[in-house]
Every structure is written in structure tokens, then in C-alpha cells.
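@channel sequence for tomorrow's demo:
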Amino acid sequence: MVSGWGVSRNLRVNGGPEMLLHRWHVSVAAGCALIAAMVWVMSGCSGDSAPLRSSPQVRLVERPALAKPASGDGSLTISKYVSRWAGGTLIIDDPAVGRTTFVVPPGAVRSDVTITMRVRTVGPVEADFEPEGLRFLKPAALTLSYRGASLSGTEPAKLGLYYYNPSTSAWEYVPGSIPEATSFMVAAPIMHFSQYAVGSVE
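C-alpha cells (generated this afternoon):
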């Protein structure tokens, strides 16, 4: 749940040269996420297909307390109005925890909606969203950064994106997950809102 993570702060990107850099980063993140979505679609998976890979041995990647930004409160948050026809992109970028992006393509939501994304800066590398339970008509793309986290010997190539399923009380693998070791990110297409985290199967 988003509530209970303390006071949040919204991030903004300024104009001018910084806007050009911002657009470049969006293009890179969106391209990575698009590849993940294509792999997911070609594999014949759907957001509600079952069974997804689930295991009590899933180990989540965690950030130590030292990774907490000096002015942080344990989480970073952004909210944005997303149009049904145009879609939208949410970005959280912080030197300590890296860059996390969420891309909603045009036609993915049934109606215009304000989306809130929150990323934890301490503990498990997690992101969650509001409105809770929102489902998409086509895959949206989440690229979650694990910069500053300890892999505890886990090979970056074995990382994936997992979502928490309250029905099974387990973290379940998101099909189409693509780890990007050089940028400390994992990208995957998602079809609904939940808690998402970076992890691996032991």
C-alpha cells in the first residue's frame, strides 16, 4: 500500500538544457521497456494468465540505510495526470537510488486518470502505485532502478521484476522481465497495479 511510507515529495524536471537531457533519458528508458513489452507479447502472456511463476524462495534486492537520500523520508513520490488518448510517463530520478520510469502508452487506460508512483529508498527495491487495482487495456512499461542496492552475490542477469499477489501471499514473477546490468535497472511490461520489486529466485 502507498500509505504509511511517510511524507512524500514530488519531483519536477526543469526546462532548457535539462529538459533535453530529461527527454533523452525518457527515450532510453522507454526503449528498454518497449523491448520488454515486445518479448512479453511474443511469449503469448497476458496480464491475468495463470499460473505465473511463484516461489516462497524469491529473494528481494535491498538497499542499505546508507542509500537513503539526506533529505529523504524513506520514499520518493510523483503524481501525474495521464490521458486516455495520449498516455503519459512518470519519472523518479535520484542520485542515491537511480532512475525509475513508468510509461503508459496511448489507449492503455479506459479513462483519464491521475497516477501516483512511489519508490522506496531503503529496504527492498520496491515501487507501488495508485489508484490501487488499476488495470490496463494494453501493457504499460515499468523500469525499476536498483542502484545503491546490495545483490548479495546474485548475478545481475538473473534479476527479474516480481509483484506481490495478496491472494497467494507470495511474490510472483512478471513475464518479460529484462535486467539491464550496466544501468542497474529491470524493465518489464505490467497489466495492473500492485507492489513491484526487483528480486531473484534462490
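heads up for whoever presents: The chain has one helix and 14 strands.
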